[in-house]
Every structure is written in structure tokens, then in C-alpha cells.
Amino acid sequence: MMRPWKGVALASPLLIILLVIFLTPVLIMLPTSFHEYVPGKGTSDAWTLSNYTRILTDGYYREIVGRTLLMGAIVTALTFVLGYPLALFMARTTPFWRATATLLVIFPLFLNLVVRSFGWITILANRGIVNNFLMDIGLIDSPIRLLFNLTGLVIGLTHIYLPFMVLMLLSAIQNIPRDVEQAAATLAAGRLRIFFTITLPLTAPGILAGSILVFVLTISALVTPRLLGGPTYKVMATLIYDEFMLKLDWPSGTSFAFILTLITLAIIWGAGRIARRWSGGTA
Amino acid sequence: MTRPSVLLTAFAGLVLIFLQLPVIVVAISAFTETSYLTFPPQGFTLRWFGEVLTDPGWLSAIGFSLLLAFMATFASLVVGTAAAYAISRRMIPGSEAIASFLMAPLVFPAVVIGVALLQFYAVVGWRGNFAALIAAHVVLTSPYVVRACLSSLSGVKIDLKEAAGTLGASGFTTFRLVTLPLLKPGMVAGGFFSFITSLDNVPVTIFLLGPGQTTLPVKIFTAIDQGGVDPGLAAISTILILVTGTALAIAERWVGFSRFV
User: Do B231 and B37 touch, CB atoms closer than 8 A?
Assistant: First the structure.
């Protein structure tokens, strides 16, 4: 028996919370980004496009946007390169080792983000583990810079988003019909050939989903870039943070927030289209 | 099925070690006798744990975080389970669209939600309001409850409820004896996710705290951001590591938690 009012009553509390505390605040932020910031006074009443044109014309802002996207691409590629073999191992090994590995993958995922970034500071700092070790064995004379630059951010963010990639890839690999690979093996295809002609292509939707997730999370990450990049090496999220909390320039901050949101939505939308085309092609 | 090769196993092992690396480093360096952070630690002392756990600032941050996470999880379980139930039974038109809207905060840039709420709360005067902070956390945590409950319910034949009805069970009895046990694993897993997510959050929380309010991760974040790392921070982080590990082990034994990840 279908009773729509009952369904609406069950779903409406959460829907109302999301409408009031998520959708409305995001939408009312849009007009702010078309105003100018007057130092000492706040947001002016006059309308302007300058917040957006500045992002395109000012080299400083353009560099931050470019750096953020580059960082997203590198982190996505690294999580894939590190994550695929691990996911493959987990799919192929005994149930005991799969369960153990799964717990080792999700433990860091649930560990506080600030704590994980803290760990990387200890490892990568000028007097950190890596530099001390390299100087002790005499490979380098003075510390190499691993923090407050792209290297540090990429290492920290790869560590943080690797579990997402592994879990996505694991479920994709487990969904491959077992007999397909066995059939190939029966037909005397080698391990590598089976991997590149069967396993990898069949997991393409999982690779796409995992990559999109990691990319989107990486370009909007705030905590790790702030702690490993310091106040000077900025990405979009830390720039938004500074515009709001330090410079109090809300119009500029909101315009960046919208650019970040638009990039995110465009990527998710584009990936959805690709995924639909793929599933349409095989069906 | 071919077993993983030695090479693959070795590579997987190294990646698993990479994943635990910062955790191990933080936990070990919390026991150093030096007043600065060093690795390997020098000597062995529990002094930093004692200092942190007797500091009123840290204790009130821990208390504030736990209360916030508990309230947000409770609220998320109530509204999230109800919504998931309605969606999975297709009780409302447009269930698919509604489900994706409910999941949107998972991929929406958290820092954008943070600044949007900062502006909104400033306009309506909710900044520093505890209930408003809980509501903001519910936005972030409810998707996990909805997702886990949907996955719990999707494996179930819809006829189970009707069968119970046919056998003469009342609506409430059916709910108590059939629906609720089916929902339990999803609710436990979703609740766990929700609690951890709330306890972990910085990018939204940091914009909404009023004067004098702070959560544990925001306090650690601000301390590192403004003054760098020290053994006290390592000690409080180690406590978080132990609590998270224990909670994960319990959730895994209780409902086979990892299948919901």
C-alpha cells in the first residue's frame, strides 16, 4: 500500500535541515560574491564582477587555482598507482589477509585528519625523520625542503585520500566475473596480458569513480594544505580560509568558494556523463 | 583464481606500512623526555599524557567535542534512518533525486559549506549557538547514516514486512521484530561513521565556533598552525589514535563494520 504522506513525513525532517542549513546558505552566498569589499567598512552595496575577473587576470590568484588543480591531478595519479596493486592484492588474497588489510586501510581513514597531518610534519620537517636520516647517512649536507611546498602537500594528501581509492578499486575488482580471467588463463594468456586486457579495462568505471572522488576531495582540502603548506604556500581552500578569517574580505572569499564549487560540480557532472556512456556501450 | 605474486604482496605490504607511518611516528614520539618533539624519542616518560589530561583547556575541548559528536550522531540517526527508510520503500516520489540530494554534502567542498554557514549564521545571529553547530554537523554526518541504512535495507526482500503482516503482526510489532533488526547493522555503522566524522571535522566547525568555544581537532589545528608541534600535542593525538582504534575494533566485531565502508 502506497501512502505518500507517510513517506514525506519520514523524509522531511532531514530534507528541511538540508534546505535550511546547506542549500539556502550556499545560495545566499552567491550575491555576496558580486559586491566589492571596502577595507574597514565591509561589503559595499554596489554590484561588480571584479572578484571574478581578478581570479582570471591576477597572476597571484591564477597561480593558486592552477596549483590546486595540479595538486589534485598528481594526488589522484599517485593514489591510483599506489592503490591499484594494494586493491588487487586484497581481492586475490585469503579472506584472513583481506580482512586484516581492510582494517589497516580504514584505520587511517578514521583517524583524525589533524593528527595524520601532524604525523607528516614530524616526518617531513627540516629536523624531521627523513632529513635526519639522510643527513646521518651523509647523503645530504643540509635539509631538503619537504614542507611548505608542493612535495609536502602531495605526500600528505596522497596518504589521506589513498584509502578512498583503494576501497573503490577493491569493490570494482571484486565485481569482475571470475570466469573471465580464468577463461583467459585457460587460453594461455600470461598474467600481465590478462591484467592489461581484462582486469584493468573491466575496472575502468571503478577507476573513474575513485579518481573523481580523490580529485574532488583533494582540491577542496583545507586542514592538510594549511598544516603542511603553512600560511604562505596557499591552495584554493586555504585562500578561502584566509580571505574570510584574516582579511575579512567576504566578497573575494565567496567568489573563490563558487569557483571551487563550480569546478567540483563540473567534474562530477562530466564523470557521470562518461560513466553513462560506458554503461550504455556495454549494455 | 591465481594467488597474488610475491612482488604484488611485497608492494601491497609497503603501501600498508606507508598508510600507518604517521600514526606510528606520532604515537612513539609522544613518550619522549625532551620538551621538543624528536624521533626517535629520547628516554621514556608519560609526563606529556599527564600534562594534557590535567589541563582544563584540553579537557573542556574533549568534553565539547564528545558532546557535539554525540548530539549530532543521535540527531543524524533519527532523521537519517527515517529518510533512508522512506527512500528504500519508494514511499515518496522522486526517491532517486532525493537520495542524491541527501548525499550531496559528501562531495561538496567542506570549506564552502563552512564559509556559507559562517555568513548565514552571522546574518541570523546563530554564530556560537550550540544547536546551530549541531545542525551544521548533521548536514555533514547524516549522509553516512542514510547510505549505511540504504545498504542495509537494499539487501532485504520487501515482502518480509508484508509476510509479517499476513501472519497477523501489527504495524508496530512488524517494525520492532522485522524492520528494526534489519536496520541495526546500518544504524550502527552509520552512527559510527557519523560520530567519527563529527569528531574529526575542522573545515566547517572552525568557522562557526563562538568566543571561548573550541573542539578538540580545532584546538590541535590552531595550536600547530600558530606554534608548531610539541610532545603535548603528540600525547593528545596518541589518545585519539587509541580511542579510534578501539572504537573501530568494537564496531568491526559488532556488525562487521568494514562491509559498509
Answer: yes
Is B119 in Cβ contact with A254 (below 8 Å)? Answer: yes
- Enumerate the domain spans of chain B: 45-260
Q: Pick from A28, A121, A260: which is nearest to B112 by CB?
A: A260
Cell of A76: 589522484
CATH number corresponding to B45-260 = 1.10.3720.10
- pLDDT digit string, tens, across residues B2-59: 678 899 999 999 999 999 999 999 888 888 888 877 777 888 888 889 999 999 999 9
Return the residue of A nearest to B109 by Cα.
A220
Alpha-carbon gap: A149 to the closest alpha carbon of chain B (Å): 16
pLDDT digits (tens, 9 = 90+) for A86-131: 999 999 999 999 999 999 999 998 888 899 999 999 899 888 888 8
Q: Do A14 and B199 touch (CB under 8 A)?
A: no
- Are the beta carbons of B132 and B126 closer than 8 angstroms? yes
Identify the helix (H) or strand (E) that includes residue A44.
strand A42-47
Given CATH 2.60.40.60, say whether it is the number of domain A48-282.
no
Q: Which residue of B has its CA nearest to A257?
A: B112
Contact B98, B200 (CB under 8 A): no
Q: Which three cell numbers stand for residue B36?
A: 621538543
Rg (CA), chain B: 22
Distance CA B256, CA B261 (A): 10
Contact yes or no for B261 and A17 at CB 8 A: no
User: Is the peptide bond prior to A251 cis by the omega test (within 30 degrees of 0)?
Assistant: no
DSSP H or E stretch at residue B68: helix B56-88
CB of B97 less than 8 A from some CB of A? no
Where exactly are the structural domains of chain A? Answer: 48-282
Tell me what ipTM this predicted complex has: 0.90
Least Cα distance to B182 among B158, B204, B165, B147 occurs for B158
Identify whether the C-beta of residue B32 lies closer than 8 Å to the C-beta of residue B38: yes
Tens digits of residue pLDDT in A192-241: 888 888 889 999 999 999 999 999 999 999 999 999 998 889 999 999 99
Work out the pLDDT band at A283, boundaries 50, 70, 90: very low
Q: Is A38 helix (H, G, I), strand (E, B) or coil?
A: strand
Q: Is the alpha carbon torsion for A192, A196, A197, A202 positive or negative?
A: positive
pLDDT tens digit string along A138-168? 888 888 888 899 999 999 999 999 999 999 9
